[in-house]
Design goal:
The complex is a heterodimer of chains A (826) and B (471). With 826 residues, chain A is α/β, with parallel strands linked by helices. Chain A has 22 helices and 34 strands. Chain A has a seven-stranded mixed sheet with strand order 15-14-25-24-23-16-17, with helices on both faces. In chain A, strands 29-33-30-32-31-34 form a six-stranded mixed β-barrel. Chain A has a five-stranded mixed sheet with strand order 2-1-5-3-4, sandwiched between helices. Chain A starts with 12 loop residues before the first strand and ends with a strand. In chain B, 36% of the residues lie in helices and 10% in strands. In chain B, the strands form two sheets. A four-stranded parallel sheet of chain B has the order 3-2-1-4, with helices on both faces. The chains are: A alpha/beta (826), B alpha/beta (471). Chains A and B meet through strand 4 and helix 2 of A and helix 14, helix 15 and helix 16 of B. The complex binds flavin mononucleotide, iron/sulfur cluster (3 copies) and FE2/S2 (inorganic) cluster (FES). The site of one iron/sulfur cluster (SF4) has 15 residues of chain B, from helix 15 and helix 17.
Chain lengths: 826, 471
Amino acid sequence: MSERPRPIEVTDPVTITVDGRQVEVQRGELLIDACERNDAYIPRFCYHPRMEPVGMCRMCLVEVDTGRGPALQPSCMIPTAPDMVVETTSERVTKAQDGVLEFLLANHPLDCPVCDKGGECPLQDQTMAYGPGESRWVEEKRHYEKPIEISPLVLLDRERCILCDRCTRFASEVTDDPLIHFINRGSNTEVNTFPGDPFSSYFSGNTVQICPVGALTATPYRFRARPWDLERTESTCTVCSVGCRVTLESSRDRMLRINGVDADPVNWSWLCDAGRFAFEATNSEDRLTEPLRRGADGSLEPVRWSEALAAVADALGSADPSSVAVLGGSRSTDESAYAWAALAKGVVGTDHVDAQLGDGLPAAVFDLPGATIDEVCRPGGTVLYVGPDPKEELPVLFLRLKHAAQRDRVRIVEVTPTSTSLTPYSAAGVRPRPGELAAVAEALVAGDAPADGVAGVSADDLRAAAAVLGAADGPVTVVLGRANLAESPQVVLDAAAALSALPGVRFLPAVRRGNVRGAVTAGMAPGRLPGGGRLDGDAGWSGVWSTVPTEVGADAMGILAAAADGAISTLVLLGADPLRDAPDRALAERALDRVGTIVAIDSFPTPSVLRADVVLPAAMLGEVDGSTTNLEGRVSRVRPKVTPPGTARADWAVAVELARRLGATWSATSVEALRDELVAGSPRLAGTTWAELEAADDGVLVDLTGGGFDPGTPAPVPQVDSYSLRLVLSRELYDEGELLGRSESMAGLSRTPTVGISVGDAERLGVEDGTPLVVRGERGSSTLPARVSAGIPRGTAHLVHRLEGSDPITLLSADEVACDVRVELA
Amino acid sequence: MSDAPAERTGGSGDTPLIVSSRFDVPEAHTLDVYRNSGSFPGYAGLAAALDRTPDEVRETVASATLLGRGGAGFPAGVKWGFCPPGVWPRYVVVNGDESEPGTFKDRLLMERDPHQLIEGALVAAYAIGAAQVFLYVRGEMPHAQERIAGALNEALAAGLVGRNIMGTDFSVDVVLHWGAGAYIVGEETALIESLEGNRGMPRLKPPFFPAAKGLYMQPTIVNNVETLSNLPWILHHGVDAYRAVGTETSPGTRLIALSGHVRRPGVYEVPQGTTTFRDLFHDDRYGGGIRDGNELKMFIPGGASAPWFFPEQIDLPLEAKPVGAAGSMLGSGAVVVMDETTDAVEACYSLVRFFARESCGKCTPCREGTTWEEKILERILEGHGRPSDIDLLLDVADNISPGPYPVAADPEHGLEAVPFPPKQTTICPLGPSSVAPITSAIRRFRNEFEARITRRDLIPVAAAGSGGDGV
Ligand SMILES: Cc1cc2nc3c(=O)[nH]c(=O)nc-3n(C[C@H](O)[C@H](O)[C@H](O)COP(=O)(O)O)c2cc1C
Ligand code: SF4
Ligand code: SF4
Ligand code: SF4
Ligand code: FES
């Protein structure tokens, strides 16, 4: 199996004898790992280095002598101790292991020719390596109905199952979705779900990856390829900002599978199902495959690249630089973002550049002293969690935090507008009223609260949370994200400013989109230059580029406002869909209406793309080369595995070509050159040159010291209107967004939209789960069934962005700090 | 409901009945009768314990050498001492899951003298400082459950359980839990899993020795029903009185569940070490002889998991050490007698099938191996056996329990005894237990197996009606 032993540092060495050789190992590490590290690989099925050992399959039996004579012991359960003598290949060991293999094969169907696992199957491999030539089993084999669907994504063939407890252990231990179990006894034992209760877990695909046989298969991959036809390359997932390491696997130039790679500082081999299966969108029929230009009749017509590029170059070159704006770039690579920053700022000369759409966090969060995931999850540490439900937005970060809380004594204080998936693992939690996060942060830092509480949080709850922080052993780390799209991101900055008073505090910015951090670090934010420098402070880039803007530009909402006022003549949408995602629908509509030329560079015909004058098809995940920066600031390589459809190109190549057409002196012409140019001009990116990234499987951290954090002008505290509920607009992992909405197997998994209200408000309104309610705001209204939840505080209405049949972002307005809505019976 | 005197208990003038003294006393399950029958008033043992410090109670039990009656025969007082100091809370778990074929003595203790068990459990709880006692009763024993629950209610009402027991500082709750019908939850760590609400599958020892990391990962003492039922008597009568019965290394008595081809099957309380199997089978106080005057063919000295004995072993005393050295074990105190009319292959099959059905499914060798053994035996019995099947059976067995398996000496064939216990490739001894009937039967009665094998094919072929090799 491709799992590797968890990296360890030998701090307490003991000497043991393995097959006659004396080796030094860490005291107490599992024998199976110690032997593997010392070139004595022990076969195994149930042991997985990221889960508790169970000693179930008995394949790893070796002879262990601790002074009382050699005895067969499962090496996955035995901690090393001084002077242990281990035989991994003695006659008794071989006999026992052969016996186990024979037992496993006794009832095994030997479907190898039609099994997805054939060719990469540990059972098959070990049988070929050690197994007897013929079977002594002449009895009737066990028969079950061939595969049963245990979830929409995962199928189970019980005949092939060797009952290793990996999937079931994963479900209960790693994710706490204990929806698959062993049932029945003896040789009738099988894995199954409880009737009517499918294995719906955001992490279900991991079970397919860790199943040592072909018992679990995933709908998107089933029967699509044989392992020996697959080509693989290691890359990084960019579906969210956790940046899990993956292998991209393709056959005949088609992406077929993504598996997790065990990056110790990040994902420990796990992936979420969105990251694992959303590649299906790359094979979607909806992909843009050729450039389009709006013709005389007003419709988008295919054109040649040269014509499209000429039109774009013209729109960029002929406009006053201050009337050119670029939105987007957080879905691309660092190098694409840098190329676009160079084009916009260094060639065109505009600073109206924003990688986000007003739906993320301002670039200033990266000026805070940074913490890595490992630092946040440091055993015994204390974490202040301010942000979205991590399971919905940063799934594998959720797994890490949950592990830290459950197994590594990490105490989590949750500061979120509603309860989250982390709530059961938190030591304390408070639910500030949207718009008033900063006041709660201040109270937590102060450790005390006025008797009537703060921002809707009771004094008792505040004190309890502050007590956990006060009892912290070492500095507190803060996970800092934006829980609520209906709340100004300024509120998060204000809270960060307050929390900065905690001694030694460091922050993990829980940004959402794949490469926001990389894009911002590459200069895709107003007022910023590559490497994090300020426009006004750092002139070094003028030597590299043709020019550097002198005036700080507008951010996304500012750009949209300027566009709505007619001040933007050319707007580039770099994988950005303001019509869907900007937290002010009306403003986005007016902006796109009034812009002179809209250039869209995208992979799919989104509503905004359909409004563009020129559309350039973009290569996406799995098709582009370069690097990405995760939320921690860890830069790692993304690699291409398949060629983009049609004539779609990487974003950076478009920028470079446009620069050439605009007659720029700046010219970097390869991803490698772009990377190295970016690093050469950015001291904080030292160590992340192309060559250095190539050598670092787990990526390289940028300098996280931080400095110059400026929260800007604090947001005013919005008035409480006691007739209204305050809106919390969050996201869920399965939405109808560009990727998942276009992935065959994932589309349709998103939940039915509801309006979540507290038990108290439900009583007041006299409603129960499912009662239709009208949510009315100044901008519009929608009717949704009620969801009554104890996790929602009184006075709050909870909606979810981008679910089929609901579009609550239309309720928002850019100039409000928080959004109040009336919720009434429909 | 009254109990028919179907089971008799032994005992004679010179040997006291320690645990079965009330078996034939009507209504002994009620608190009233319990307090006023037997060799001393009920709950006097607990009162005696509460007069001492917990350490003194543990010392008393340790010096009595009260050997565990659940199967392994480990001294209770020593086990209690394994609770790591300073780790609280601690628990006592009463193992009332008795389901080993042939074993039915704990059921009688629970049905006929439930207060004696509760009193014993309270003594243990006091000795180790347990916060709670969990009383786990086998799922298929509704009568025992009813009696235990009734007794517990009475005890609670009388202030013998709960807060400030007998007016002292000692407080302990007793929680009842009924099993759901699995032999394996008699194994202590599987029982703990089951108590925690999980599927009953054993944990690995080490690291999960219950005394250190048991129920909810806290120090937990698991004791058998009979073990605990001895405590009131020991506390009341003292160590010397107890040690006066039985032998130096195995003092006291044992309840023996005698079944099979004897005239008077039943549960008998016999002094350890001084009684032999011959006494047990033939003495009129006990078995009263082999049925129909038949010859003894073989017997199982300690429950279905124990390797078989044969007429040569009949003079061994009922005592752990000599029985172990002779290649078997006293185990759970279940003695099954088989006379000359017994078919060794059928007997072997019947036992193996039990283990195959009851394997929890956790470890590969037990889960797959026991079923394989069962299927081969089934095939032999159905007339589809092949000559290679006997050695195949032994080899499959060897992959569950490697190396020479404990077996009794066979002087006729010049074979020496292999002492107990067997080795195992499995987590718990259930899988290896399935090997006991196989090696016992084949070593002694290979001819009976051979006589059953009519097919002469030398290479493996599909058995009639089977799916073949499935390749
Ligand atoms: C497969 C298996 C089944 C067992 N069943 C029982 C049982 O039914 N009752 C029992 O008391 N002990 C049973 N045991 C033994 C227990 O694990 C444990 O040793 C015993 O309860 C300890 O009590 P004692 O020290 O008082 O004997 C079983 C052991 C195994 C391996
Ligand atoms: S389905 Fe696969 S992972 Fe799950 S128990 Fe069976 S073999 Fe193991
Ligand atoms: S957690 Fe994020 S980075 Fe990891 S697999 Fe999921 S989407 Fe990809
Ligand atoms: S030996 Fe059998 S019963 Fe015991 S743990 Fe293993 S599978 Fe379960
Ligand atoms: S790998 Fe150790 S028992 Fe399965």
